[in-house]
Every structure is written in structure tokens, then in C-alpha cells.
Amino acid sequence: MIINHPLLGPCDAQEFTYKGDARLIDRPDGMADGADAAFYNYAYLRDNPAGQHRELWFHEQGDRSWLVVTRNTVTHEITQVELARDVARKSGRSA
Amino acid sequence: MRYSGFRVIKEALSGHKGWTPAWRDPEPKPQYDIIIIGGGGHGLATAYYLAKEFSQHRIAVIEKGWIGGGNVGRNTTIIRSNYLLDGNEPFYEFSLKLWEGLEQDFNYNAMVSQRGILNLIHSDAQRDAYIRRGNAMLLNGADAELLSAEQVRREYPFLNFDDARFPIKGGLAQRRGGTVRHDAVAWGYARGADSRGVDIIQNCEVTGFRIENGQCKGVETSRGFIGAGKVGVAVAGNSSRVMAQAGMRLPIESHVLQAFVSEGLKPVLPGVITFGAGHFYCSQSDKGGLVFGGDIDGYNSYAQRGNLPVVEDVIEGGMALFPGLGRVRLLRMWGGVMDMSMDGSPIIDRTHIDGLYFNGGWCYGGFKATPASGWCFAHLLATDTPHPTAAAYRFDRFEKGRMIDEKGMGAQPNLH
Q1: ipTM of this complex prediction, to 2 decimal places
Q2: Whole-model pTM?
Q3: Which of residues 7-46 of A touch B (CB under 8 A)?
Q4: How many CB pairs under 8 A join A and B?
Q5: Beta carbons within 8 Å of B12's beta carbon, 6+ residues apart
Q6: B235 occurs within a structural domain
Q7: According to the 3-state scheme, what is the secondary structure of A58-76?
Q8: Using one digit for the tens of pLDDT, what is the confidence trace for B345-355?
Q9: What is the pLDDT of residues B46-80, one digit of tens each?
Q10: Which CATH number does the domain housing residue B395 bear?
Q11: Are residues B263 and B329 in the same domain?
């Protein structure tokens, strides 16, 4: 698989380490009420769809950026690649 | 019809005109006591033991394609019970004991061959770990034997003993491990279940569950609604998709695992060997092909085919261990979709919906578990209590911190 890195252009997926569902960006608040249930959901449960899947890849052998890759889990086709930083900022996770 | 040597001779003398289909092809009835979703090894074994050991009636197995077309037909056929942890080892040893009597039990030649499995040791630390594992196996009634490098050399002289990075220092052998003709497992269970009245309904895809007041009443399928008192789901690889129809999210990701078979060779490999320094395992089939595999590809996939980097990784592991492999031509390779759970261990449990039961999360160790998985799931469906050897395979173990994590990798399914 070739991942089209937003900054570096096409890169072999072998340069990356796979993390999993991009929802892992949305880490719950550990101090909130019901945090134990929220963390059980966060850490262990997955949608695991057959089809479009947004997922985190780490460019470990490259610029060490985290990417959000939209990939089809049935065909392995990659349709969108974003910097995870941009995705996190858009959802208000950091300044 | 019972199969026997006498029967084969009789049929040979009468032009093989007396053979009948091994199972029926029935129309679905409107209502069953128990429906099993998934006509793979685990689903068919569950139906077989429900009918035979737990005296249940009015059972159906529903399969979206043809029986045995999923992972029971796509694995590397290895059976073993060389686990470490308490939650696992009694279960896998129960399974190995069932394999030992299976062919007599269901009157079908599954070519169970206890040719032994050998986990190779490449360092002192690994020897310590395997001694501990071997002791855990012995404590649970399994067999285990620690071999020196010289003993390994006598049995497998062609391995790369003096490799500079990964010299072979010995091995942990389980003599009762081995291989089984995988398709025949599905066919044997199907025939045994069918002869006890189980309806095996192929080309019937489940499209939804009918759930009323927290009670599962049956399944919607591509061939209409089928009512059931209890529904058991055994669809590993597609567990998340099927259970999503009941509104559940699972502690599972689907990943692709590749396997390979070489051209046929004369007998070279007496048992099953596993490389301890990389991920590579290999046996020789009765047709002569070397059957081998390694790691999962490492990203979520439902594709039943993998990519080339893992092919290279597996072959490198093979070459490091077994240099003669380089002269052998690869014949076929394929992929199967694995339910990778969050701790590397399976789930056999009730769900929060009454009448809906789940069996899955087998990671890439489901084939060896087939008989015990079927037995324990049948026990759960018939009695509503877990079988003692499968009592740890609960849904809530992640929430309660009771993981069964053989590799100690935590909630990162592609590392188990």
C-alpha cells in the first residue's frame, strides 16, 4: 500500500506503524463522571467496519508525523490522508 | 450411513453406486430451538455437540456462503495445547484431547496426525520462558518436553543451528501436537450434525436480529425470518459486522493473516516447527507441500488477501531458520480474516440480550480450538452456564481487568 503523505508525497506503508481507529484521538477526560466506562469504551471497543475506515498511522521511518488515513478495509484503497494534528485541532483537542 | 473399511470395499466392488450425500440441503423451518450463525468449524462443531452431547433438538446452522468456506478452510492446520496462562491452557488441552478421539467420535477421516510440534529456542532467556511454559503445560495435564540443541539436531538436521544472530539452543516439544486435514473437520462435523437432525442451511445470510424487550426472538435472513429460542453467533472474522446488527460493539478488530504452501516435496519435515526469533511456523502436508505462515499484516482488513511486505517478512524468517527453503518454489498463498481481540484470547459468553450468545475473538488460533470451542459453546447454549475450561472467556474481562494476555501486549490487537 502507498500512503500519500500530505507533506512528503507518496510513501510505502512499510515506513509506517499502524495504530488503529482514528477515534483514539478522542481520549476521554479521566476526571469526568463515568470516566471508567468511557475509558472501557475508548480502550477496548471498536466499530471495526467492513468498508471505509479512518485510522491512525505513524510515520516511524519518516518524519514521525501521525496521519489519519481513510482506507477501505475490503479493497485496501486509500481515499484520503490528513495530518492527525489538523484533525485533532479541528475537533478542538489542542491549540 | 457409517463409513468403514468394509463399506469402502463393498462400494468398490459395486461401482461406487451406493454412496449418498454426506448431508442434506434442507429448506429453513419457521422456528428452531437453537440457531447457530456461521457454518464454519466452530459453528458446525457447536451444532454437533449440542445434538450429540447435550441432547438438544430442532437445531439449525445458518451459513451465508457454503460450509467450511471461511477460516476452517484457510488455516495452517496445526493443533497443539502449548499455552501458558491458566485461563487458556485447560481449554486448549481439552481441545487436544477431543482431537485425539475425534475421528472415531464422528466417524470421518480427518487425518489427525500427532506428528509433534517443536518451538525452537534461540537464547538463554527464551529457554527460561519455555521451561516455565512447559511446566504450566505439565501442571494442566498436557505433555511437554525440553530438548537440547543436540536432540533437536537429531530430529531436524537441516535447520540453521549455527546462525550468527539466532543460533538454535534447543526446543520445547509437544509430541501430541500435530496437524489435521482442515476441510475434513468441517465436513465431519457437518455430517455428524446432519445425521442427528441438525438442519444445515447454506446460502442464507443473516441480515438482522429480531430483538423484542431485550430478548432475541430469531434472525432476519436473505431467505426470510427464522424464529429461535436461542441464537449462537460463531462467525469469527466477521464478528463485529454480525454483532453490530444487534447493536453491539466488540473488543475486536478484523485483521488479515496470510498463509503459504510450496510445491509438493518428498517427506522432509517430520513435524511442525516454529521459529523462536521471528514469526514463522511450518509443517509438511500429506501431499508434500510445505505449509507455512507468519504474522498478520497488521492493519484492519476484511480482504482475505494481504500485501507483499509480510510475504517478505515470513520468507525471511523461514530462510533464517531453514535455508533449504530457498530452493523450493511457492505454489499458493492466501489470506484469512481474523477476529483479533484486545488481549489475544477468545470470547465464549452470553450477551446482554437474552437468548443471544457469542463465540469469537479467536485471533489466529481458532483452528486448534475447534472441538473445544464447539463443546464449550454447546455447553453454554444448552445449560446457560459456562463450561469450566472456558469460564474465563467472558465479555466483561476487559472492563474488570481480567485479561488473558499470553503475549502481554495490551489493547493493541495487531501485536497479539
Answers
A1: 0.96
A2: 0.96
A3: 13-14, 18-21, 40-41, 43-46
A4: 67
A5: none
A6: yes
A7: ECCCCCCCEEEEEEECCCC
A8: 999 999 999 99
A9: 999 999 999 999 999 999 999 999 999 999 999 99
A10: 3.50.50.60
A11: yes
